[in-house]
Amino acid sequence: MKIKKYLVAALAAAFTFSAQADEGMWLLQLMKQQNSIDMMKKQGLKLEADDLYNPNGVSLKDAVGIFGGGCTGEIISPEGLILTNHHCGYASIQQHSSVEHDYLTDGFWAKSRAEELPTPGLKFRFVHRIVDITDLVNAKVKAGEVDEYEAMTNKFLGKLAKEELEKSDLKGKPGIEVRALPFYAGNKYYLFYYKVYSDVRMVAAPPSSVGKFGGETDNWMWPRHTGDFSMFRIYADKNGEPAEYSADNVPLKTPKYLSISLKGLNEGDYAMIMGFPGSTERYLTQSEVRQRMTAVNQAMIDMRTVYLDVLKKYMRQSDKTRIQYANKFAGSSNYWKNSIGMNKAIVDNAVLATKAEQEKRFASFAQGKPEYEGVVEKIDTLVEKMSPSLRRLEYTSEALSGAIEFGCPPALMDKMKEAIETKNDSLLQATKKQLEEVYESIHNKDYDQQVDRAVAKAILPALAKALTPEELPAFYQTIEKEYKGDYNAYVDDLFDTSIMGSRANLDKFLKKPSVKAINRDLATNFSRTKLDKLKEAAAEYNQYAQEIELLHKAYIRGLGEMKQPVPSYPDANFTIRLTYGNVKSYNPKDGVHYKYFTTTDGILEKEDPENPEFVVPAKLKELIQKKDFGRYAMADGTMPVCFLTTNDITGGNSGSPVIDGEGRLIGCAFDGNWESLSGDINFDNNLQRCIALDIRYMLFILDKLGGCGHLIDEMTIVE
To answer: Where is the signal peptide (predicted)?
Structure first.
């Protein structure tokens, strides 16, 4: 695992050993250098390298961008129309939903531009420019301005990015953001300039019974029948430049958009995906894989099981609560199930044995090369030392920072104490205002204290069972001593009496703030002791960060040299990549064959009116039964829903366009398959599959169910 200071976003970068054409998250800027375009053409690509990425002109890259904070979206019309996944747009759909306008349940279809809904906070980022800054970083290291480890840190790279922007012709241009990142574990560095649009409006979303059909039961599974899509539109000022929301803004005239193919799919057809894969860790040692299973994944499984069980109970009881917690539940459950599947797949797919063989080959390669000899053994020694603290961090963070929303910032209360004791009125007033803001941020429209209270009552004893008494925050001692181990009584007091527990409590405190009230405040003590324990474990963990970073840098460089002349790609770090492969079925186990596509027949086969995950809308059922599919059906009259490719994807690729050999849109990627959930650690060419929404099903739903023919009309569709 590539280690960064804990609680700071980590960026992994690595090589793999397989030369399989389907594996690889390739950097667009290195396609010509690595001759990957030749490999793509052998698979069926009809385009040239400049058609995919052209630093001096328009290319497919300009039709793809970052949707929100963690997904991919593509432009599918000259009017800035975005296609992404339903689960990527889910937070926005939930944001606009209420009991009166339940777009999660009923769907949303804007029948005109005037009906498209502004979505505050939602952004769309295009990659504007990519610059190789490896020589610049190395020169600073050589000159002693920064050491080799510091050069990989966010602090140094953030400062460098700002300096480069100041010298750039893009300085002062609307919407420009810049980010410097390490690749290949710090053996390479690139600077990314993004053009960011902040007026993004919701256009269309099917009901969750379509967009999330199959729910958690079908998540990460095949066969799949989920219409996982939503649509948004980018608005800009009259000059086409990024601008905050204004009624005067107009749809963005995009320089590039994807045309759509209705020609259909056959097994073996070429398929490529351009998007922003989030994170992979494919160079981990055996010890690091075990650490991932026992410290990281197991903590997520154990703590989120408790959290999700509580949410399920309350979401079933109230439509208001269901809407409030829909996005939180979806986000938490997604990687809860992923962690379960990953741990199972690591065992089923013999990943540890594969890593053992990899390390054996590397040891032979490293003989006589001082910079590589003993690197794996040193990494394993450090992993053994840091694993206990990582486990404490993960369990504590999942339970107390991930599940419980309630608390009171101790640093803010310390400022309040200072203001009271020094009688500093300006500081007092400023701190009062900050407390008001914190209260509002907790008690927002998507917060229900009854639910949060129930989560706390379930999660606190669960964490106590997972960790030793010495590993727990000090507030557990309060529970034992003052509440005789009664978690329910402690939690009730925490929520009932704390300053942040209610508007009345806060108003009472602000009217007459006192140090005594702060010292006895349970929420402040809860938050303070929680943070103290997290910081303690993080300090233990981080003391090994510098050494293991540099060992990984050497390890990754050595793996690349060992593979030559076969090109290597860096691990995913949420930067734009291209993967390529083919439409393909697979055999998950003996006697079982999964074909490469599903149809609407499977929707009716799965229908269960008593199970909210498998409800079929009456109108959709009627369309399927009448086979009213219009021009979107296959040649035999059936309606495709989803399909499989061998593309190499991971989280962040959600919403990515699946593109044929002629550069036309054939689908929208949204998931991986259960049997290959160890793929972020070790790619398995036989089992790894990308699950994609067939673009024909999207058009069918948009047209026949949503009645949005006007959106169909603005697209370029090839029959």
So the answer is: 1-21
Find, among 583, 669, 21, 40, the residue nearest to 267 by Cα.
583
Q: Is residue 174 part of a domain?
A: no
Beta bridge partners of 47: none
Sign of CA dihedral 630, 634, 639, 641: negative
What are 202's strand-pairing partners? 117, 232
List CB contacts of 486: < 8 A, sequence separation 6 or more: 479
**Residue 116 carries which DSSP code?**
P
Task: Please list, in sequence order, all residues whose beta carbon lies within 8 angstroms of the beta carbon of residue 98, skipping any fewer than 6 positions away.
Answer: 323
Task: Specify if 563 maps to a domain.
Answer: no
The pLDDT assigned to 11 comes to 25
Is 694 catalytic? The answer is no
Catalytic residue among 22, 62, 199, 228: 228
As a residue count, the chain comes to 719
- Whether residue 443 lies in the annotated active site: no
User: Is 492 in the same domain as 515?
Assistant: yes
Q: What value does the mean pLDDT take over residues 78-97?
A: 97
State the chain's mean pLDDT as an integer.
94
Q: H-type helices in 498-617, by residue range?
A: 503-511, 515-519, 522-542, 545-563, 601-606
Residues 429, 347 within the same domain: yes
Query: Residues 97, 654, 656, 678: which is the catalytic one?
Result: 654
Does the residue 216 lie in any domain? Answer: yes
Helices 298-317 + 449-466 axis angle, to 10 = 150
Same domain, 258 and 293: no
- For residues 106 and 99, the answer to whether their CB atoms sit within 8 Å is no
* Digit-coded pLDDT (tens) for 404-423: 999 999 999 999 999 999 99
Evaluate whether residue 176 is within a structural domain. Answer: no
Residue 576 has pLDDT above 80, yes or no: yes
Q: How far apart are CA 387 and CA 379, in angstroms?
A: 12
Q: Is the same domain home to 225 and 278?
A: yes
pLDDT tens sequence across 455-474: 999 999 999 999 999 999 99
Distance CA 686, CA 637 (A): 31
* pLDDT above 90 for 401: yes
Which ranges of 607-690 does DSSP label H, i.e. alpha helix?
Answer: 618-626
pLDDT over 90 at 702, yes or no: yes
CATH number at residue 81: 2.40.10.120
The CA angle 205-214-280, to the nearest 5 degrees, is 85
pLDDT in tens, 234-257: 999 999 999 999 999 999 999 999
Strands (DSSP E) along 221-276, which ranges? 230-236, 250-251, 260-261, 270-275
Owning domain of residue 245: 35-123+198-282+572-718
Each residue's pLDDT tens digit, 340-384: 999 999 999 999 999 999 999 999 999 999 999 999 999 999 999
Name the active-site residue from 62, 77, 86, 87: 87
Q: What pLDDT, on a 0 to 100 scale, did the predictor assign at position 545?
A: 86
Tell me, yes or no, whether 327 and 452 share the same domain. Answer: yes
User: Can 654 be counted among the known catalytic residues?
Assistant: yes
332 and 427 share a domain? yes
% of the chain beyond a pLDDT of 70: 97
Look at 264-268, 563-567, 577-581, 618-622 and tell me which has the smallest mean pLDDT: 563-567
Rounded Cα–Cα distance for residues 523 and 521 (Å): 6
CB atoms within 10 A of CB 325: 22
